[in-house]
Here is the input.
Amino acid sequence: MRETNMKKILISLLFLLFGTSVYADCNIKSGSINILANDFPALRTFVETAKGCKGSADFKVTHSSEHNKIAVPALTANPSEFSARIAANSSIVPLMNQDLIRPLDDLVKKYGKGIQDSQLITIDGKIMAVAFMANTQHLYYREDVLKELGIAVPKTYEEVVAASEKIRASGKMQYPYAAAYKAGWNLAEEFVNMYIGHGGEFFKAGTAQPSINNAKGVATLNMLKKLAGLSNPDYLTHDSEAIKVEWESGNVALMTLWASRSGTLLDDDGDAKITAATKLTGPATVGGGNIPAATLWWDGFTLAKNRSDADAEATFRSLAHAAANKKMVADAADQAVWLIEGFKPGPKSIGVIEAVKMKAKPYPMLPQMGLMHGALGSEIVEFLQGKESAEQALKDVEAAYMSKAKEQGFL
Amino acid sequence: MPNKTFFWFFLPTGLAMILFIGLPIISTGIQSFYAQHDQVVKEVKKCDPFGCTVSIVVDQEKTSKIREEKPLGKFNGFGTYIDRNHLAIEEIGKFWNETNSFGEFVDQVTNLPFYKALIFTLTYCLFVTPNVLLLGFIIALSLNAVTRRIRGPLIFGTILPMIVTPLVGSLVLFWMIDAEGIIGANLQMLMDDPYLSLKSSKTLTWITIIIYGIWHHSPFAFVVFYAALQTVPQEPVEAAIIDGASRWQRVRHIVLPHIYPVVTFVALISLMDNFRVFEPIIGFSAEGSAQSLSWLIYDNLVNEEVILFGSAAATSMMTIVGIAILLAPVLIRTWKEFRTAR
Here is the structure.
C-alpha cells in the first residue's frame, strides 16, 4: 500500500518536472532569452506563458512602461541587450528604420506551428513580427450615472460633450470626462485619434511633408479642448494610470481609455459599486464621420538582429509557444483581445471588436510618424491652455516637425 | 601651495576630468555638426491583422551602404544650431519683418521651443539662486545662535531636503498639490475656485517648481555657510559688541566680509546647478508648462521613438555656453581678486 503511494507521488513529481516540455514541444536545449516589453497585465501573461516553455534556456524579462526609451539603444548594441522586443504598430517603426530586427520567415516555417497567418506582420514580403493581441482606445461609461440622468450611451464625441455637460450641470460630478491628456506621447495619441476620426491625413500623399494645418486639424483641436474643459483641470499631467485611478475613485462617468486596461478596471479591487456600473462600448466617432476617432493597434513580438542565431531560435520557440497557446487564451480571455486561435471574445473585448466592426484605421506605420507624434505632444499644449490659436498651434507642430524631419533626413 | 605641488596634486583629477568630461564634450560638439543622411525610402506592401496597405519603409540596403561610408552622418555645419527648434535665426528674422509691434515680436519668439526653454531656465536661475543664498544664510545664522545641545538634530532636519532624492521630493509635492491633494484642495477652498489647479496654470506651475527648487537647494548653501560661520574669529565680534554694534551691524560688517569667498563659491555652484534644472520638470509632470534646456535635451533623446542626436548635441553645447556666460562675471571677479591677492 505504502509502496504504491510512493510510486504515485514519484510519478506525479516526474510529471510535474517534465510534463510541460513533453507536451508542448519546449525542449529548448540552450540559448539565452531576454525580452523587453511594455507593462500591462496581458503582456505579463503572455511573457509568463512563454517562460513556461523556456526549456533549459536562460530566461529574463524587463517589463517597463518606459520601453520605448530603452528599445532603440538596447537593440543597437551588438550583441544587443534583448533578444526580443514586444512591439506595437508604432514602436516597430524605429526598429525598422534602424534595421534592428530580423525577418522571421525561416523560424515561422520551422517552429511556428499553430500561429495563424493573420498574426503575421509582413513588410515587403518578409515576416517582421508575430502579433498576438489587438488594442484600441474606446469609451467607458458609468451605467448608473447615465441611467439616473436619462442619458443615452454616447456614440459620438459631440454626444460625449453633451452628456458630460449634463452630468456636470446635475452637480453629480465636477469633471465627468477623462482621457490620457498628459503632455507628450499621450496627448499626441489623442490628437492622432481625433484627427483620424475627422478623416485627416498627416502627410501630403507619398511624401514626408506635413499636412495637418487645415480645417480638420482645427476641428480636432477644438474638440480636444472641449473635452479637456470637462476633465479634471490637471489633465495635462494625467496618463492612463492616473485616469484609471480617477475612474476608480468615482470622479468620472465617461472616459476614453485603452482596451488593455479594462481588465484592471473590472477586477475585484476597488469599490464594487463602481466596478459593477462600469460598462464598455466602442470608440466614438466625431464630426459626422463614419470611422471611429480611434486607432487600432497590435502588439506582437520582434527579434533583435544583433543577437546570435541560437538565441533568436530559443527566443522564437518560447514566444511562439505563447503566441499559439489556446490554453493561455482561454484562461486570460478577459485580459486582452487575443489574435490567437481559439479566442472567444468576452464582455471586456467589446471595445476592440466594435472598433474593428466600425472599420477603425490602424495607427499609421510610417517611418516619419514618430517625429510627427513627438511634435504634436509638445506643441498643442499651449492651445489647450488657451495661450494660442488652433491655427498657430498647428503651424507650430508643422514647423517643429519639419526641423526634426530635416535633421533626420526625411525632408 | 607652490604651483608645482599643486600641479601634481591636480594631475589625477585633471586626467579624470579630461577623460570623463572633456572628451565627451568634444564628441558631443562634433556630433552637433552632423545630421542624419537623407533617408532612402521605398514603397512596400505591409500586412497586419487589420489588413494590407501600400506604405513606405526605409530602404535598408541603400541606407546601410551610405551609413558605412559616412558613419557620422551628413555634415550640417551650424545647420542644427540655427534651425527652428534651436536658435531659429531665419524665423526670428521673419517675425521681425512681419510683426507690427515689439510685444507681438516677443510673443512669437518666446513661442519657439529653444527660447521658451531658455526663458524658463533663466527665470528659474534668477529666482532660485539669490533665494537659496539668502535662505541658506539666514538658516545658518539662526542655527549658529541656538544652543549646542539641540543643534545636531536641527541640522539633520535642515539638510533633509538635500538628502531626499530630487525626483522623490518633487513627486511628494506633486501629489500634495494635486487638485485632490492636501495643498491643492485647501487652496481651492481658500480661493473659493473649484477650477483652480496648480498644475494646469503655467504661472502657478512655474512658481511651484521655483519654490521646490529653493526648498531643495537651500540646505546646500546652509551647510557651506554654517561651516564658514565656524571660522569667523570671535575677537572682532566681541570688540564690536563692546562698541555697541547691533546684531545686523555685526553680520553686515564682520561676518559677511569674512565668509564672502564662500558666498561666491555657493553662488557659482548654485547657478550651475540651477541652469541645468531638470528633475522637478519630470517629477511634477510639468512638461506642458515648463521646459528647460536640459529637458529639451532629454526630450530629443528619449521622448520620441526616433532619437535626435544632432539636436540633443546642439542643445547641450548651447547649455555649456549658457553656463559659461552666466558664470563669466563671477569668474572674472574671482580671477581679478586672485591676481590682486598675489
